[in-house]
Fold:
Amino acid sequence: MARVFHATAGSGRSAARRAPRTEPAPAPSAPGRDRGGIVAGYLAPHPPHLVYAENPPQNEPRSTGGWEVLRWGYEELRRRLKQHRPDVLVVHAPHWITMVGHHVNCVPNPRGVSVEPIFPHLFRYHYDFRTDVDLAEAIVDEGAKAGLVTSGLREEGVRVDYATIGALHLANPDWDIPVVSLSANNNPYYYSDASLAEMETLGAATRAAIERTGRRAVLLASNSLSHLHWDTEPELPEDMSVERPFDHHQYAGDMELLRVVREGPTSRLRDAIPAHIEATSSETKAGSLTWLLAAMGWPAIAGEVLAYGTVIATGNAVVEWVPS
Ligand code: 2X7
Ligand code: FE2
Structure:
């Protein structure tokens, strides 16, 4: 895709407030077994179909299954997540779009029904979870200190988007771990990958807040990979005989990114993620994956791909990074 709208995000004034973009973040302090810090990060995509296919009691529509390989990957993620014993799950999601700045949900007990606007017949999910308010407020504070425009959402009753709920359900359907949820500043949808650099700052601020509050945190980047999908679906949405990549180019782009993920180190992804966005309209353009790796300090490790599969033609991978 051509970089038609590639321009520097924000005004000159807001750019001056922002931390320098290319300055490497200080190395994160290594989390000890019982100390705080980021203990793992996961690429945790949120296609509503995966929740629909599971038939959890919280979701109204019923299915006969489907997309099993991706769901087996999530089963493995859940097993590993429990072993990490996190105090909190911190999720960045592309469908909580905020026009100005980076918002953090500070509502203690979000409750409601989350609906997927394009696939409401697949995802009408009743949620009721706890927020780690101290950490949420600390992220707002650290982001502002780093020069970002940040805002705490403190208004009860605002509907939580399906990308936040989908990733959280798929990672932890028991909902027994407190959550902090971050919005996606929507500039990426206007400015190609120009806002990815700002995710470096948001990632470093997230880590500073986690260390300041002493939490053991697992991070979730709620992103699909290649992001073109069909505009029609089969009569039975879970009919796997028609599930396939959008085209060879999209599939090959995803495989190239995952090759770099599996080889490591993560610093190679600083170039590979923008290249993948150019090639495939990747949903990582919304910044969740870059935020996650920046928060982890771009560790010198490989990621482990737990599963890859398409959902209505989009590419989706479940990936784990555990800092050594
Ligand atoms: O938001 C999504 C997505 N990322 C992928 C597939 C289908 C629907 O919604
Ligand atoms: Fe999405």
About this structure: Residues 1-26 have pLDDT under 50 and may be disordered. The longest helix spans residues 196-213. Residues 32-321 form a domain with the Protocatechuate 4,5-dioxygenase; Chain B fold (CATH 3.40.830.10). The chain has one domain: 32-321.
